[in-house]
Design a protein that fits this description.
The chain is of the alpha/beta class. Helix content is 47%, strand content 20%. The radius of gyration is 26 Å and the shape is extended.
């Protein structure tokens, strides 16, 4: 299967053989064996190399899926075998990564040279499903009602909504802003199912805005929001846990607006009863660090 995939990609017997670490005659034999199985020609030979037939292209897609599944299965088996020694599987939201893992993960790796950490970013429905699977040892996110079945939440940092704009925005650099200034701006709003969007709706209600401008792009992705703020002359309500990195790198500026909008606490879920020694080392380091002792951003 690997020979088939590489040959479709490289279109050259010698290069494909070298890529997977076999001799060219062995590659030719593998192709001959495949063609014998399917009783169809898979590659057309010519002076410059080979050209895959439509059947070879279709088979390569299936083969790549099988190879990926085998690799994932191998990684899972390896993680089970080495869990006590070094392996940690963690899911995270972007806000939780910025508030906790951005500083904690480098420290952990420095102190535990043999540690292996598998990280997967989750968002929306994907986050919901993580609690019902056995795929993760730790889930870094906001406190929610999803945890159960042995999951315990550990709070690490508070968070709130702030207003940001690009450095070139007309409101950038102001020391004070009037309500009219904010109402006249074009806003990037969050997805309807997010705390950001609920916070925005609350701000509209509290300020009595009945007429305001919204950019016609709605997304859960913070990267999309950042792009809209930087390039579409707009402002956005965004979690401070995410925006502080943007402001630090001068991608955005925080506007002098006190929203009064607090967000659910950031932290992590874990299962103490079944946690491995590797997981316990990371948890212990996070809890002992001054970042968490102060528990604010």
């Amino acid at each position: 299967m690997l020979a088939l995939v590489r040959l479709v990609e490289l279109r050259n017997m010698g290069r494909a053989a070298q890529d997977i670490g076999i001799a060219q005659p062995a590659m030719s034999q593998l192709v001959a064996d495949l063609e014998a199985v399917f009783e169809e020609q898979l590659f057309l030979r010519h002076a410059r190399g080979v050209e895959p037939t439509p059947l070879a292209l279709d088979l390569a897609v299936i083969a790549q899926r099988i190879i990926s599944a085998v690799e994932d299965g191998t990684e899972l088996v390896a993680s089970k075998m080495n869990a006590e020694q070094s392996f940690i599987r963690a899911a995270y939201t972007l806000a939780a990564y910025q508030a906790i893992l951005d500083w904690a993960l480098p420290l952990h790796i420095q102190k535990n040279k043999s540690s292996r950490v598998q990280l997967d970013e989750v968002i929306g429905h994907t986050l919901n499903t993580t609690f019902g699977s056995d795929d993760y040892d730790l889930i870094f996110c906001r406190q929610n009602d999803l945890g159960g079945d042995g999951w315990t939440f550990v709070p690490c940092a508070t968070d709130r909504l702030i207003v940001v704009c690009s450095p070139g925005h007309a409101l950038a650099g102001r020391t004070t802003l009037s309500d009219e200034d904010l109402q006249g701006a074009t806003w990037v709003t969050g997805h309807v199912a997010t705390q950001v969007r609920r916070g925005f709706e609350r701000m509209l209600s509290e300020r009595g805005w009945t007429d305001h401008k919204e950019l016609k792009v709605v997304s859960r992705s913070a990267r999309v929001v950042l792009s809209m703020v930087r390039h579409c002359d707009s402002v956005a309500l965004i979690p401070e846990s995410i925006a502080h990195v943007w402001c630090r790198d001068r991608l955005t500026l925080q506007l002098p607006v006190e929203t009064g909008l607090k967000l659910n606490t950031l932290g992590f879920y874990w299962k103490p009863a079944s946690a491995t020694s590797a997981v316990r080392r990371l948890v212990k380091m996070i809890l002992e660090d001054s970042h968490v002792r102060n528990a604010t951003l």
